[in-house]
Amino acid sequence: MKNIIYSILLIGALTACSYEEELELMDVSVRLEYPANTIDPYEGAEVEIRNAVSSVFISETNGDGVARFTVPSGIYEITSSGTHIEGNYRYIYNGVKSQVVVSPDSTNVIALKLTVTKKRIVN
User: Which of 82, 87, 93, 120 is most buried (most C-beta within 10 Å)?
Assistant: First the structure.
């Protein structure tokens, strides 16, 4: 009798785990938006995407100011901050956008507005 019960439990455990769940990945583009009269988009600005379980994905912008990612569906926080030197000025920028939904039903093209401070470099 015990052997029959163990067999039934073993079959139940094996059939409960017999499916394969694939992780669905989504392409996401993040476009940095700089305030007017500051700096133009440039290549190499770092953009970070973090999901609810603290998985972090990092990419850099292309010459158009767009960073591309391939991430699982979920809810994300997107950030970008850093400095950029152009001419005799140092630009310090920062931006964050929370509760961004990435799914097959969303557009997955996100605009991230930045705040920028301009400091003159004195030699």
Answer: 93
User: What does the pLDDT look like over 8-64, one tens digit per residue?
Assistant: 555 555 555 545 567 789 999 999 999 998 899 999 999 999 998 889 999 999 999
- The token duo for 105 is 């039903």
Exposed (0-12), middle (13-18) or buried (19+): which is 45, by Cβ within 10 Å? buried
Concatenated DSSP letters of the chain: -HHHHHHHHHHHHHHHT---PPPPEEEEEEEEEPPTTS----TT-EEEEEETT--EEEEE--TTSEEEEEEESEEEEEEEEEEEEETTEEEEEEEEEEEEEESTTS--EEEEE-EEEEEE---
Measured CA to CA, the distance from residue 89 to residue 68 in angstroms comes to 28
The token pair at 46 is 């770092």
Q: Determine the Cα–Cα distance for residues 123 and 120; give it in Å rounded to an integer.
A: 10
